[in-house]
Structures are given as C-alpha cells and as structure tokens.
# Entry
Amino acid sequence: MSSALGIKKVGVVNTKAGNLFSLFACLRRIGFEPITVNTTQDLELNELCALVIPGQGRFGQVMKQLKATKLDQAIQMWSQQGKPLLGICVGLQVMFEQSDEDPGVEGLALFEGKVTRLQSPKQPMVGWCQLDSQEARFKNQIVYFVNSYGVKSSPVAVATVTYGEEFVAAINQGNLWAFQFHPEKSGPIGEEMIKQCLR
Amino acid sequence: MSTLNQQVGLIPRVIVCLDVANGRVVKGVNFKGLADMGDPVELALRYQEQGADEIVFLDIKATLENRANALETVTRVAQNLSIPFTVGGGLNNYDDVAQFLNAGADKVALNSAAVKNPSLINQIADGFGSQCVVVAIDVNKDEVDDYAVYVNGGHVKTETNAFDWFAEVEQRGAGEILLTAMHRDGTGIGFDNELMARVAKERNIQVIASGGASNAEHFVDTYQAGSDAALAAGMFHRGEYCVDDVKQALKKQNILTR
# Structure
C-alpha cells in the first residue's frame, strides 16, 4: 500500500476542531505523506497505510463531526479490519465509550471505559511528564502532555503517567494505538513512537 | 532532594526565547537597544537539538506591513520543530491569533492586547482551548516596591494591579502566564524568584519565569522557588551557555530533566 514514489500515505481525519499543522509537519519529517480525510470517500479512494485521529478539540465537537460525515462508522470498520489506527489526545478519548467533557455523547467505543476530568494540580496540564511502563519503548520516556481530561485506567493500557493522579498515557491492542500525550510535539522520541505505530 | 515540580509530576521546562525584529533574532538590554543574534529558523533548530523543551518566538517589532513575513518565518520554524512552539507579538484580535495558529504555532502569547481587551483571553480560550493561551505579562518593580504592569513592549505603564491581573487572566481561561520581570531583564542577576514563587503558589496555572537569567544556576534557583518553567534568550544566543548546560546543572540537584 504505497504510492508510486514509495512514500506511504497516512490518512489524518479532519475533525474540524483545530489545526493539523504540527501533525502534518511531523508525518512529513518521518517520511509519510499525510492525506486529509474529510469524507468516507477519502478513505476508500486513497491507498492509506494507516489512519490518525488528531489531538485537537473537545470530545463532543469531534464526535459530532465524525457522525455528520459518517466517518465514525468508517473508522469502526477500519479498526475491525485490523488496519493501523492511531488516536492522539482527544483522538484517544473518542476511542472510548463516553466522556464527562460532553455527557450523553457516544464515542467510537473501540475500547471499554469512560473519559473523566483529571485532578491535575494545575489546569490544564501543559508540559513534559515521564511515562511509567513495562515496555522498553515507553518506559521512563518523557513526552509532552496537553489535557484536562483523560482515562483513569484501562486493561489495554501499555503506559501510564502521574500528575496529581495516575491515568492512561498509551494504549495498544493489535493495530490500534492511542496516546494521551502529543507524540508530534515530543521531540525525536515522539517521532519514533509514531513511526512504530504506523509502519 | 526533591522539588515541588517532581512531586506533581511535570518536568520543569527550559524555554529559549527568540526575540524577532524584521526577520532576525535580536537581543535588547532592559527593553532598550538591539543587537543582531541570527536567523530564527537556524537558532530554533539549534536550541531544539541542544534539548530545549519549548521555543518562544516574540515578534517585538510587529507591524501590519511585516505580518506576511512574520507568518512565513513562523511556518518555516514550525515545519522543522518537534517541540512546542509559542508565538507572540502584535496579536491584537481573534483573527490575528487564528492566522498564527494556522501558520504553525502551538500556542500564542497575548500581552498588550489582553490588557486592553481582557475578553480576548476568553474568546481565544473558547475558540482554541486554554492550552494554547499564554498571557505574557511584563511587570516592573517601582520606587514604592510594588509591581506595575507595562504594555507596548515595556514602554507604557498601566494602572492595572499586577496581582489582580494574574488572577484575572487565570479566571478568563489563560493556560499559562509568561511573567517577565522587567527590572531583571538584561541584568543577568537572576529571575525575580520572590515574585515567581508567590504567583506560582497563588495561581492554579503554570508560571514561566522570564527576565534576568545569565547562568545555569539561575534556572535551578527559580525551579526550586516554584516556577514551572523558565525562559532566557541572551545567555544562549551569545553562546555563553547551551541548553544542555542548564540540564546538567538541574541533574546535579536531582531535578528531573528531559
């Protein structure tokens, strides 16, 4: 699944909730061609090797956009087919069932559980924090977080972080990946993590 | 030995500031007199490689005529940076902020515009989220030992009470305060840690210390006083210290660094 030039295309879901500049620039730096996915046709017509749900905006706003474009069902289908999918920040959160940020709005429910408001000492949490993990690729790595909401715990968590309280930092189940932090803003370590998820 | 920052889990940030005028990085002394320090893109990348945790780009001679040029420079920096990137200077309204965020900034720093029109903070926080709103506040300690808020690049004293203003920007949705002690800027005697400690303790948002640093120990001192992050320009631009020197000084005090 690569273009004529051999550069793999990665779809970035347009959630219309913020700018995608940093993510696009990061994907280009690590050798992918980012493609904006506005519609289900964009998913079907492009030979995408992976899909990213970016980390801008709030839960309700992102889900509203995904439902309006029917990309919610397309993403669920994509994940059922076992294709690589990466959610970042709110992109992680919408992969769960619901969120206290917008009660009553259904998430993609790729993972069981609920997003809650974090008891951060300073709100919003903005900054670098060290990961706790059994996996070498995450263990003690320092990455950049920007959030007020998160998931307290999950059976599919592969890394956690503590700021006031412990919460989920990274998730992996098959080809499904999700990071509460922003790998595209986490220096060379973050770029390496994205590469590994999307390859 | 542990610091407040370690207990709450966030790692103190070392931020390098690029004061940009007419497309070049410059450095002033006490907000007066400018010397050329180099190309913004080159310098931003150099500091990222040295281990900077964030880059702040302040267009200190922002004019409408120069806007297109500033946006283009911001984009060139942003394309190459894999760390957070904050842009300020000449942001007067919502559309200005949107332009710079679309050009690649992760956060914007509002200064004079926020003092003149405080509801701008609410508008940006509502539109783009608190995490991208940094309110830059320039304070000067005057004869009666009180802190006054200055605007227009430190040229105009306002009637605003500094401590009321810190509280108000938080309440209006700012994500961080970039606090410059003008009376320390360019002096090299260190950050105003008495001020930083008080604001960091009283406010529930992060405080970036600015103004007065000339060596690595000054960073250690301000983090130990409670600052969440600290920013310097000249000591890095002049090549006296690289960012890693600061990180090494922090490590010696068992302060976790990236």
